[in-house]
Amino acid sequence: MQAVILAAGKGTRLRPLTDEKPKVMVEVDGKPLIEDVFDNLIDIGVDEFVVVVGYKKQKIMERYDDEYRGVPITYAHQREQLGLAHALLQAEPHIDDDFVLMLGDNVFRANLGDVVNRMQEDRADAAFLVEEVPIEEASRYGVCDTNGYGEIVELVEKPDDPPSNLVMTGFYSFTPAIFHACHLVQPSDRGEYELPDAVDLLIQSGRTIDAIRMDGWRVDVGYPEDRDRVEKRLNEGEDAEAAAAEAGDS
């Protein structure tokens, strides 16, 4: 199974942490964000990485070269940061079949494998990990509206009036049909080629997209305080595991 990792961003909101390195190389709990992504993907069976790089890409390429923990890495280059759909298209020449897509700045402790399993079992055209947020926060995200079968029927990027409180998280499974949709996307009001717009084209063409509700947690590391928040959660998890192990030994 191949995985595309989007790692081209500058991380301007994380400055000064990103003055000398790309966003995905910011360390959380002692290791770069992208290593946490790699480890999560290896855990669900990924055996090839396609990493889309851009800003200060040499920092990534020099550190990992052509493999991580024995898993080969291919680099695709996004020379201008023109949105997630544009970034994904840079990986198209390297993708052979169905694949997973993960944003390189998210830390997950969640049921990622369920997304892959659902897509393989149902032969859906895509499956997304989604989470519920307070309705007043939903307008900050890509918001999903689903039918009674758990299929996404509408996806709206940062709407003023959200149709639900179910939002995209940053982990997806796609067939290669997503590339055709990305080619058709037009620039948004902010001049970027948006991934939610490509997904909406899939929906309009009758493709099936399953929503998998997240069991666990994730943090999108966009600001310095997010790094502090995720480190706290990771340390709490380690303390809980240690306590459980100690209770089992007693």
Summarize, please.
With 250 residues, this protein is an alpha/beta fold. It has seven helices and 14 strands. The protein is globular and about 45 Å long.
Describe it:
With 250 residues, the protein is α/β, with parallel strands linked by helices. It has a single domain (2-244), classed as Spore Coat Polysaccharide Biosynthesis Protein SpsA, Chain A, CATH 3.90.550. Helix content is 33%, strand content 29%. Strands 1, 4, 5, 6, 7, 9, 10, 11, 12 and 13 form a ten-stranded mixed sheet that branches. Strands 2-3 form a two-stranded antiparallel sheet. β5 (67-68) and β6 form a beta hairpin. α3 packs across α6 (195-204) and α5 (177-184) crosses α6. It is globular.
Q: From the coordinates shown, what is the CATH architecture?
A: Alpha-Beta Complex
- CATH C-level: Alpha Beta
Order of helices and strands: EEEHEHEEHEEHEEEEHHEEH
The oligomeric state of the chains shown is single chain
Task: Name a few traits of the molecule.
33% helix, 7 helices, two-stranded antiparallel sheet, 14 strands, alpha/beta, 10-stranded mixed sheet, Spore Coat Polysaccharide Biosynthesis Protein SpsA, Chain A, 250 residues
Layout of strands and helices, then pairs:
Elements: E1 2-7, E2 27-28, E3 31-32, H1 33-43, E4 48-53, H2 57-64, E5 67-68, E6 71-77, H3 84-91, E7 99-103, E8 106-110, H4 112-122, E9 126-132, E10 142-146, E11 152-157, E12 166-174, H5 177-184, H6 195-204, E13 209-213, E14 216-220, H7 224-249
Parallel strand pairs: 1-4, 1-7, 4-6, 9-13
Antiparallel strand pairs: 2-3, 5-6, 7-12, 8-14, 9-12, 10-11, 10-12
Helix pairs in contact: 3-6, 5-6
